[in-house]
Amino acid sequence: MDKDLAITTHVSVPRSELSFRFARSGGHGGQNVNKVETKVELLFDVLHSPSLTDEQKERILKKLENRIDSEGVLRIVSQESRSQSKNREAAVERFIELMSHALKVRKKRMKTKIPKAVKERRLETKKRRGEVKRLRRIKEV
């Protein structure tokens, strides 16, 4: 359970940096809902994580700003299952998915020019079309 979580090929986060809180979950479960704390809240301190570089922290804070509080803590809640262990694993999987998506570097878009031949072809077809329309006009005598 102390194994590192592989986020990307270059980034891994030790499980010891994750903290969990548990609460009673709503919904289905009968008496289980009233007795067992199955809702899992995963907390990860992005700002103070030693396994991330400043650039990575900045990228995560920007991409996941809606999920991170003012102290820089990422919060993920899972309560789909009636089992605490399944909810914990679901929260960890969601954490890995969110982090890998946030750390993905997007390629910068290269502007492309319209080739000269394509422009000339377009103008030529416009000229031909205009000539056809001009020849259809009724000539005044």
Radius of gyration: 29 Å
Could you tell me the strand content as a percent range?
15-25%
Number of domains: 1
Please estimate the helix content. Answer: 25-40%
The sequence of SSEs as H and E is: EEEHEHEHH
| Number of E strands | 5
What is the overall number of helices?
Answer: 4
Stretches where pLDDT falls below 50 for ≥5 residues?
A: none
What shape does the CA trace take? elongated
Based on helices, strands and strand pairing, what is the structural class? alpha+beta
Spatial ordering of strands, largest sheet = 3-4-5
**In the CATH classification, which architecture applies?**
2-Layer Sandwich
CATH topology: Double Stranded RNA Binding Domain
Largest sheet: 3 strands, antiparallel
End-to-end Cα distance, whole Å, is 96 Å
Average pLDDT reading: 86
Question: What's the CATH first level?
Answer: Alpha Beta
Task: Identify the notable features of this structure and list them briefly.
single chain; alpha+beta; Double Stranded RNA Binding Domain; three-stranded antiparallel sheet; two-stranded antiparallel ribbon; 18% strand; elongated
Sequence-ordered SSE layout with sheet pairings:
Blueprint: E1 4-6, E2 12-14, E3 18-23, H1 31-35, E4 39-45, H2 54-63, E5 73-78, H3 84-103, H4 116-136
Antiparallel strand pairs: 1-2, 3-4, 4-5
